[in-house]
Amino acid sequence: MTNTRFLSFEGIDGCGKSTQAKLLASHFETELKDVVRTREPGGSIGAEAIRGLLLTGDTDKWSAETEILLFTAARRDHLERTIEPALAAGKMVICDRFADSTRVYQGATRGDLRGKVDQLHATMIGREPDLTLIIDVDPRVALARGLARNCGEDRFEDFGLKFQEKLQSGFLKLAQEYPQRCRLIDGNRPPEAVFKDVLALAKQ
Fold it and tell me: If you count DSSP H runs as helices and E runs as strands, how many of each does the chain have, helices first?
């Protein structure tokens, strides 16, 4: 069992967080039975519609400012329709990305927009996960993984290696900024080894 009720996974594209979220949800389902695994952008009907707008198309499709608004709109719908009802029902929520991704992707790497991200978050979202696990992976390896998926949702991978390196730096800084909530995990290992650390931290 764990005292953590709302847990998020973060990291650069292709870091393996989605795999770890799935493994953790499967593990806790055998113990808790009431686990909701969700994702961002997405996790509700409205947010999934916005996901398609954000993750497909050319890299210059949206400005960073527009992305912040779209991600926040998707997150608000996700929060209202999926996360808050699950938590209110006593379920555990495991989320593949949350507000930290917007802090890094739009707030720290695409202009000096962190203040706007935080202002919108405080006004429209107003909550953080109990625990955030940041999977840290070599950007070259992660980018190769992300592009190899060829899933059609690769708009951010198309920004290239330098962008992924900026993202990695942003997530490392985020872990320092929120030491009580964020934990770094070395993702440059087989998934089974990474999951041992994930499970140990999630059960604290």
Answer: 9, 5
- For residue 115, how many C-alpha atoms fall within 13 Å in the half-sphere facing its CB? 1
**Range 173-177, long-range pairs (CB < 8 A, 24+ positions):** 173/108, 174/10, 174/100, 174/103, 174/104, 174/134, 175/134
Residue 130: half-sphere exposure toward Cβ, Cα within 13 Å: 15
Nearest to residue 71, comparing CAs of 91, 35, 100, 94? 100
Backbone torsions φ then ψ of 57, nearest 5 degrees? 100, -175
Rounded-to-integer distance, Cα 133 and Cα 154, Å: 23
pLDDT in tens, 58-86: 888 899 899 999 999 999 999 999 999 99
| pLDDT tens figures, 130-172 | 999 999 999 999 888 765 565 555 566 677 788 889 999 999 9
pLDDT > 70: percent of the chain: 92
Say if residue 85 is preceded by a cis peptide, omega within 30 of 0.
Answer: no
Distances (CA, A) of 108 to 55, 121, 201: 18, 15, 27
Q: What is the pLDDT of residue 159?
A: 73
Pairwise CA distance, residues 68 & 194, whole Å: 31
Of 69, 4, 67, 74, the C-alpha closest to 32 is: 4
